[in-house]
C-alpha cells in the first residue's frame, strides 16, 4: 500500500504488516469459564432485545488501540457489553469501578 | 497461548452480573443454561454434514444452496442463527475462511471458534499470505490450485465442503465423518487421508 | 432499499473509496483493503438490516448484500496470479466499474 493510504480502524487488521512475521499459534485450548460466561451473557442480553451483535462490535471497535491489542478476546467483549449496559441505562456507571 | 483473564476483568464480570441481577434483567441460572446449550455445539455436526454430502447427491445440493436447511435436516436447531453458506473445494479451488474484522464463525455447526481463528496473526495474515499460513500448518497447495480466501464480513457464516479423500469408496457416513476435521471445515487443512 | 438487486452475477464493480472512520464514530463491515478496488459480483446473498445503523440502535433499512470476488495480487502485490479473495459487501458500498 502507498504512503497516502488512510490508516484503517484498529480492528480492521486484514493484511496488517505488524503481524506479517507472527506465526499462527495452534492454540486449541477451549474457552475458559470466564469466556464462556461472557459469551452466554451476550446471547441472553441479545435474546431479551437489550443489545445487538452489531452494537457489541461497535463497542469492541471503540476500545483504544493499546487496550484492544492487550486485552483477551472475551475481555474485549466484556468491556463492550458493560459500556453498552451503561449507555442504555440498564446499570450505573459505578459498575466499572 | 491466550493469556488468562486479568483479575480486574473477573471482578468486572462479577459486578456487572450482580448489577444486572439486581435490576431483574438476567439471572445466573439463565446464563448457566445458555452456556450449557452453547457448549453442546461441536465440529462433529459439520463433519456429519460433509460425510452425508459425500454420499448423498441430493443432500449435497441442499448443503451448497442452503446450508441452514441442510443443518436443520441433520436435526440441528438453527433458530436465530445467521444464514450458513457452504463453499465447495474442487481439484482446482481451495477455500480458506477468515474474519479479518472480528471473529465471525459458523458456531451452530462448528462450536466455539478456536483461539487461533480469533488471533490477530490469523486475522491479518490469512487474507494476505494464505499460502504461507497454510504451508506453516503443513498444507502445500500447488500453483494450479486457486486459493480463494473468504473474508466473513457480514451476515453469513461460511463452512468449507472439503474434497472426499481417495480410497473411501463404500465407506459409511460415520466412517467418512471421522476424516473431516474442524480445520478442514475452515479450510486450513484438507480432509484426512483414508 | 430491499428492492431487486442492482448488480447481477458477473457484473464489474468498484468498492467506494470512502473512509467514514476518519469522519467520526461509525461501524462498517467493508474491510480497508478492498476500498477503491475493482471486483466481480459472484451473487447477491439477500437483503439484511444495515449493520451501520444496527450498531447505533438506529432504524436499519435492509440493504442487498453481495459476494464480491477480488484478485489477491493487485491488492497485496504478492501471491499467485489466480488466487482470489471473496468478501461480503453491501450494495451501498458498490458502484459500477
UniProtKB/TrEMBL annotation, chain A:
Gene3D superfamilies named in the record: Nitrile hydratase, beta subunit (1.10.472.20)
Name recorded for this polypeptide: Nitrile hydratase subunit beta
Domain Nitrile hydratase beta subunit-like N-terminal, chain residue ranges per copy: 10-94
Coiled coil: none
Automatic annotation (TrEMBL), chain B:
Record-linked Gene3D superfamilies: Nitrile hydratase alpha /Thiocyanate hydrolase gamma
Residue ranges occupied by any Nitrile hydratase alpha/Thiocyanate hydrolase gamma domain in the UniProt entry: 14-189
Binding-site residues, Fe(3+): 99, 102-104
Keyword 4Fe-4S carried by entry: no
Residue spans crossing the bilayer: none
Pfam families in the record: NHase_alpha (PF02979)
Keyword Metal-binding tagged: yes
Key words, A-Z: Iron, Metal-binding
GO MF terms, alphabetically ordered: catalytic activity; transition metal ion binding
Protein family according to the UniProt entry: Belongs to the nitrile hydratase subunit alpha family.
Protein name as catalogued: Nitrile hydratase subunit alpha
Automatic annotation (TrEMBL), chain C:
InterPro entries (alphabetical): CN_hydtase_beta_dom_C, Elect_transpt_acc-like_dom_sf
Pfam families: NHase_beta_C
Domain (Nitrile hydratase beta subunit): residue spans on this chain: 3-95
Protein name per its UniProtKB record: Nitrile hydratase subunit beta
The species this protein was found in: Neoroseomonas marina
Organism lineage string: Bacteria, Pseudomonadati, Pseudomonadota, Alphaproteobacteria, Acetobacterales
Amino acid at each position: 500500500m502507498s504512503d497516502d493510504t488512510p490508516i484503517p480502524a484498529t480492528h480492521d487488521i486484514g493484511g496488517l504488516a505488524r503481524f506479517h512475521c507472527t506465526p499462527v499459534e495452534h492454540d486449541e485450548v477451549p474457552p475458559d469459564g470466564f469466556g464462556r460466561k461472557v459469551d452466554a451473557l451476550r446471547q441472553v442480553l441479545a435474546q431479551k432485545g437489550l443489545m445487538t451483535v452489531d452494537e457489541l462490535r461497535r463497542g469492541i471497535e471503540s476500545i483504544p488501540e493499546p487496550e484492544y491489542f492487550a486485552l483477551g478476546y472475551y475481555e474485549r467483549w466484556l468491556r463492550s457489553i458493560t459500556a453498552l449496559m451503561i449507555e442504555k441505562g440498564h446499570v450505573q456507571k459505578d459498575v466499572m469501578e | 497461548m491466550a493469556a488468562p483473564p486479568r483479575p480486574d476483568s473477573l471482578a468486572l464480570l462479577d459486578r456487572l452480573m450482580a448489577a444486572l441481577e439486581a435490576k431483574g434483567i438476567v439471572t445466573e441460572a439463565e446464563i448457566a443454561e445458555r452456556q450449557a446449550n452453547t457448549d453442546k455445539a461441536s465440529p462433529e455436526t459439520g463433519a456429519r454434514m460433509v460425510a452425508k454430502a459425500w454420499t448423498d447427491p441430493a443432500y449435497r445440493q441442499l448443503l451448497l444452496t442452503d446450508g441452514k436447511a441442510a443443518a436443520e435436516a441433520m436435526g440441528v436447531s438453527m433458530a436465530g442463527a445467521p444464514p450458513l453458506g457452504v463453499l465447495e473445494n474442487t481439484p482446482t479451488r481451495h477455500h480458506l475462511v477468515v474474519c479479518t474484522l472480528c471473529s465471525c464463525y459458523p458456531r451452530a455447526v462448528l462450536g466455539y471458534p478456536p483461539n487461533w481463528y480469533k488471533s490477530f496473526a490469523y486475522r491479518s495474515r490469512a487474507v494476505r499470505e494464505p499460502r504461507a499460513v497454510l504451508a506453516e500448518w503443513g498444507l502445500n497447495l500447488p500453483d494450479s490450485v486457486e486459493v480463494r480466501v473468504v473474508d466473513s464480513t457480514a451476515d453469513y457464516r461460511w463452512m468449507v465442503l472439503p474434497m472426499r479423500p481417495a480410497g473411501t469408496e463404500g465407506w459409511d457416513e460415520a466412517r467418512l465423518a471421522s476424516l473431516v476435521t474442524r480445520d478442514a471445515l475452515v479450510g486450513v487443512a484438507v480432509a484426512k487421508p483414508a | 432499499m430491499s428492492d431487486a438487486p442492482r448488480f447481477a452475477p458477473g457484473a464489474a464493480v468498484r468498492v467506494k473509496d470512502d473512509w467514514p472512520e476518519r469522519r467520526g464514530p461509525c461501524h462498517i463491515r467493508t474491510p480497508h483493503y478492498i476500498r477503491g478496488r475493482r471486483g466481480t459480483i459472484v451473487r447477491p446473498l439477500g437483503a439484511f438490516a444495515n449493520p451501520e445503523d444496527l450498531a447505533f440502535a438506529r432504524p436499519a433499512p435492509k440493504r442487498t448484500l453481495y459476494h464480491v470476488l477480488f484478485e489477491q495480487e493487485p491488492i497485496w502485490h504478492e501471491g499467485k496470479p489466480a488466487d482470489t479473495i471473496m468478501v461480503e459487501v453491501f450494495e451501498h458500498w458498490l458502484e459500477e466499474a
